[in-house]
Amino acid sequence: MVSSPDHDGAVSRSDLREWSAEFDALTNLMSSLFADPRSQKHARQYVEGLLAPLERKNGWTIAEFVGEKEPKGMQRFLNLAKWDAGTMRDLVRDYAMLHFADPQGVLVADPTGFAKKGRKSAGVQRQYSGTLGRVDNCQIGTFLAYVDSRGNRTPIDCELYVPESWFVDRDRCTEAGIPPSTEFATRPAQVAAMIDRTVAADVPFSWFTADEEFGQNPGLRTHLEDAGIAYVMAVPKNTELSTPDGLVKKIEDVAAAIRPADWTRRACGLGAKGFRTYDWAIIASGQPTHLYMIRRSIDDGELAYYHCYNPRHAPVTELVRVAGSRWPIEECFQTGKGQIGLDNYQVRLYHAWYRHMSLAMLAQTFLAVTAHQHHTKKGAPQPARPARTSPPLPAMSTPLNPSRD
After folding, report:
1. Per residue in 221-254, pLDDT tens?
2. Cis peptide bond N-terminal to 236, omega within 30
3. What is the dihedral of CA 209, 211, 215, 219, to 10 degrees?
4. How sure is the predictor about 275, in pLDDT bands with cuts at 50, 70 and 90?
C-alpha cells in the first residue's frame, strides 16, 4: 500500500487498511469507465504499478510488479483498448474536488518537458524545455494544477503540445495517431481551453497564476478577463505599463523608483527551508482593476514582476498568496516524475500519451488525498495563511493491500 509516514516515520496497520479502502473505492469508481473487464483489471494494475516502489515505471516493470508474464496486456491497454482519456481526466478532476474543493482555490498552469529519443513520438522535436534547461529532443506537456488555501495541490488537466512543424506533414501525424481534426495550438491557447473545461465543470476557484510565458500573452490575459477570472501572472522586466498619470514605462524602471517605505515583507508559502519570505511592492496602473506587483529577494535583491488583474480589489496579502501558489505545480512535477513515473512512459501514440498522463494524474491525486487525510488524522495544523505545502506525500514502501503482507 502507498504509505504515508507519521511524523516519526511509523505506519500503522490501521493506516494501511484506510489507504487500501481508499484505493479500492477509487478503482471501483474508475472501473465504471471500462466496458471490458480486462481493461478494468489493467487500469487498476497500471495505477498500482505507478504507485509501486519501482525505479522505472513502464509497461515491462509494471507488468512484472503485478504478476503478468509479459507486458503485452499493459501495452494493449494503453494503445488499443477502447476507453477515453478525456473521461478519465474528468474523473481525476472530480476526485480531487471531492477532497480539495475550495472557493479560494488557485488554478496554476505550467509546461514541463519529457526527454525522448527518435522522431516518432507524437509532438516530439528539438525544442527548448525549461524543465531540461536546454534545447533537446523532447515532448512538452502543458498542465493545469489546483491548489487549495491549505496548500494541498494536484494536477487536474493536461494537453500535449504539438509543434506547428508537425502539421505540415500529415502522414507523420497519422503515424503518431494525431487525429485529422487536431490543429496547432499554442501553449497559452491550451491553457485557455483547460480553464474553460474547469469552469464548465463548476470547479470552485478564485484565481489563476502562471509564469512569464503565459503572463506576457495578451490573448490569454484577455480570455481570462472576459471570463471574469482574476489572475496574478509573472511578466518579464521589459513589460510596459501605463502609469496613473498616463505615461508608458518599463516595469523595471518603475520598480527602480520604489521608495523604501513602500516595500512590505510577507511570506508567500512554505518551502523546504521554511517560509518563502520576500519584500513586495504594488504599482498602480491607469486601469483600476489592473496593477503590478514586484517581489524582491531578501538575500540578493533580485526582482520578479507580476501583472495582476484584480477586479475584486483583493489586498496585497491575497495577491502574495496567489503568487506563491506557483511553486506547488513545480512540486507536482517533482512528485510526478520522482514517485509516479509521469515521465517513464514508453508510448508513442497521441492518445496513448493522454492515457498514461490521465492515469498518472489519478495516482498523484490519490497520493495527495491520502497525505491530506493522514495529516488531518494526526491533528497537524493546516493554517489557511500563508499558503503552505501539504505534508510529505506518501511513498510506496508497503504492499497496496495489507492482506499481501
Report:
1. 999 999 999 999 999 999 999 988 889 999 999 9
2. no
3. -90
4. confident
CA distance 382 to 150: 6
Per-position DSSP letters for 24-76, written without gaps between them: HHHHHHHHTT-SSHHHHHHHHHHHHHHTS--SS-SHHHHHHHTT-SSTHHHHH
Instruction: Look at strands 230-235 and 207-210 and give their pairing.
Output: parallel
- Looking only at the bridges linking them, the beta strands covering 395-396 and 230-235 are unpaired
Q: How far apart are CA 101 and CA 204, in angstroms?
A: 6
Q: What is the pLDDT of residues 247-260, one digit of tens each?
A: 999 999 999 999 99
Amino acid at 286: G
pTM for this one? 0.90
Chain position carrying cell 489586498: 315
Coil, strand or helix at 4: coil
Write the DSSP string, 312-345.
T---HHHHHHHHHTTHHHHHHHHHIIIII-TT--
Report DSSP state, residue 392.
P
pLDDT band at 98 (very low <50, low <70, confident <90, very high): very high
Spatial distance between the Cα atoms of 100 and 313, rounded to a whole number of angstroms: 25
Helix (H) or strand (E) holding 209: strand 207-210
Q: What is the pLDDT of residue 10?
A: 59
Residue with the three cell numbers 508497503: 398
Residues 6+ apart with CB under 8 A from 192: 219, 220, 223, 224
Specify the residue for cell string 487500501. Answer: 20
